[in-house]
Design a protein that fits this description.
CATH topology of the largest domain: D-Maltodextrin-Binding Protein, domain 2
Largest sheet: 9 strands, mixed
CATH superfamily of the largest domain: Periplasmic binding protein-like II
Number of strands: 11
Radius of gyration: 24 Å
CATH architecture of the largest domain: 3-Layer(aba) Sandwich
Shape: elongated
Strand content: 15-25%
Helix content: 40-55%
Length: about 300
């Protein structure tokens, strides 16, 4: 199968239009059309329905897209590996970083990596486990550093190297009224606004804690999937949230946030360094992993 045809095919899948795909590739539209026609003939299926609204992918195109992206990703990895074998120092590494690691671990790792391997071009993308996993499987990123919620299971197509345990803890701003109480009861927590993410089933678990204590769960909730926004909202309000230690510790050290001594909301999640099983790690990824392990050990002793 011609790699160039796959490249043209993926451009049309992205732009849903032959002319815009050609423009993005800096080639003529007839060249794109010819390549796709050849690909359709080779596969004996129709990939796009052409019409006034552009190129509409068929079910065959949808099925091909995932495999095509993996093929392109593997080609990029192969070129990088061969360059390493030739002794070339330049390359590119695409990393998915869980939002929980953006404040402490990731900056330490990335700053040392750039200093030691300045000719390696880094592409970093931040997100949660659910948004980064498909990109890793599709080859859009080479690896990811995440601590998924217990409700999420990582794909069997990924290798996951366990790094440390990230502990979710009840968190408020420094000087919050709850930090001044000698003992905090569950009923005291129901009086405040809670920042939660319903996407990962957080509120279902928290609500059970209130119900088990015979307390009506708080009615004032803000559904917030951004951990960064949650941190800044906590700092500037009397809201309450459950955040990972890795995410919050830097703000606790600055005396901007505080952990509350309430064990009922504690949850332990494992942090992983993940890459695709069918794609052996290239040298730059191995170098990054060595730094991740080094700084994880410094922070957590594991």
């Amino acid at each position: 199968m011609d790699i160039l045809r796959l490249q043209y095919f993926l451009a049309i899948m992205e732009h849903r239009n032959f002319a815009r795909a050609a423009e993005s590739l800096n080639v003529s539209q007839p060249a794109v059309t010819h390549a796709v026609n050849k690909l359709e003939k080779e596969l004996m299926v129709r990939l796009f329905e052409r019409g006034r609204f552009g190129a509409v992918p068929t079910e065959f195109a949808e099925a091909l897209e995932h495999r095509a992206r993996l093929i392109m990703a593997e080609m990029a990895l192969a070129k990088s590996d061969l360059a390493s074998m030739r002794g070339a120092k330049k390359g590119r590494l695409s990393i998915g970083i869980g939002t929980g690691f953006a404040n402490r671990l990731a900056p330490k790792v990335l700053s040392e990596f750039v200093e030691r391997w300045p000719d390696i071009s880094l592409h970093c993308e931040s997100g949660n486990s659910a948004s980064l996993s498909p990109k890793l499987l599709n080859g859009e990123i080479d690896l990811m550093l995440v601590a998924p919620p217990l409700s999420m299971q990582l794909s069997n197509d990924l290798n996951a190297i366990e790094l440390f345990a990230d502990v979710d803890r009840l968190t408020v701003r420094s000087g919050h009224p709850l930090t001044l109480m000698p003992k905090i009861e569950i009923a005291d927590l129901a009086k405040y606004v809670w920042l939660v993410s319903r996407k990962v089933g957080m509120w279902t678990r928290f609500r059970q804690v209130f119900q088990d204590a015979g307390v009506v769960p708080p009615e004032r909730l803000v559904d917030m999937s951004s951990a960064t926004l949650a941190v800044n909202t906590l700092i500037h309000s009397d809201a309450v949230a459950v955040l990972g230690t890795e995410m919050s510790q830097v703000f606790v050290d600055r005396d901007e946030l505080a952990f509350l001594p309430v064990d009922d909301f504690i949850e332990v999640r494992k942090a992983y360094f993940c890459y695709r099983k069918r794609s052996p790690m290239k040298l730059s990824a191995k170098n990054l992993l060595s730094l991740v392990k080094k700084h994880s050990k410094e922070l957590y002793g594991t």
